[in-house]
Amino acid sequence: MTSVRRSCGRDLQGVFYERLRLGASYRFGVDYADRLVNSNLERPVALIGIAQLQLGEGLRIGYAYDHNISGFDVRSLTTHEISLGILFPQRRSSIVSPRYF
Fold this sequence. Notes:
The protein is mainly β. Helix content is about 0%, strand content about 50%. The protein has one domain (about 5-85). The chain contains no helices and five strands. Strands 1-2-3-4-5 form a five-stranded antiparallel β-sheet, with no helix packed on it. The radius of gyration is 21 Å and the shape is elongated.
């Protein structure tokens, strides 16, 4: 039987000047129902730094750095992530009858 890694995390983010978001996250391995196969699951898994910038109305770009702190493992290398968030405007619905429910 192979072990499956399960993780849980704690996040903290702050918004500055309504345009800049900075944050950090701490992700750690957990053992459900005492099925621990690998002792590395008891130790912290990763520290994550997050930065996002609101470029305009409905457009956001972000960067995250995920650093593994539980030792070297081929399946969980340090990663970089770039994200782009686009918020599309909602369609306006026209009301045919003032008595809709």
